[in-house]
């Protein structure tokens, strides 16, 4: 079987990047034009060039390819793989938003680990009262406050997985998330329950 040719990341001018951001935001050409202080025709020409550079047939495909590139840094990543990075990953992944650290989204592995406990829109402290005093909240809050990632291996944690509070061991990677200006506005957590794994 022949190897798939690698797709090069298109080299974009600063103006093309601005137009692409408008497309990603779902704006029409006539909406992007006044934001950039150019004519609608100029925006259409930029979009035509972007379609050629990304080798896609229309704006929808352009937005999808650009989103994939923005998320993964590559155009070689298949569209079907992207959902596997988070939604279908075996790691327990959750995204917490704002200084109060409210759950914005969780993946299926996280949902399963907490027995489908409703967490979206709740703070960590509201969703997991049994974690008080175990240092978990403080660790996540520190990542948000300092903007420094944190890795903890095999942390003992007691939480309810649906059959009452249990002793577990969890390895966590906590990564700050930043807005367009570089300010921390969330935290993403990657966790794996290593309780059942043999210790070295």
Describe the 3D structure:
The chain is of the alpha+beta class and 200 residues long. Helices cover 38% and strands 23% of the residues. It is built from 8 helices and 5 strands, in the order H-H-H-H-H-E-E-H-H-H-E-E-E. The protein has helices at 14-24, 29-36, 40-54, 59-72, 79-86, 108-113, 124-127, 136-146; strands spanning 92-97, 102-106, 150-160, 165-178, 184-193. The protein has a 5-stranded antiparallel sheet. Helix 1 (14-24) crosses helix 3 (40-54), helix 2 (29-36) packs across helix 3 and helix 3 (40-54) packs across helix 4. It is elongated and about 65 Å long. The model has no long low-confidence stretch (mean pLDDT 89).
Secondary structure: elements and pairs:
Elements: H1 14-24, H2 29-36, H3 40-54, H4 59-72, H5 79-86, E1 92-97, E2 102-106, H6 108-113, H7 124-127, H8 136-146, E3 150-160, E4 165-178, E5 184-193
Antiparallel strand pairs: 1-2, 1-5, 3-4, 4-5
Helix pairs in contact: 1-2, 1-3, 2-3, 3-4
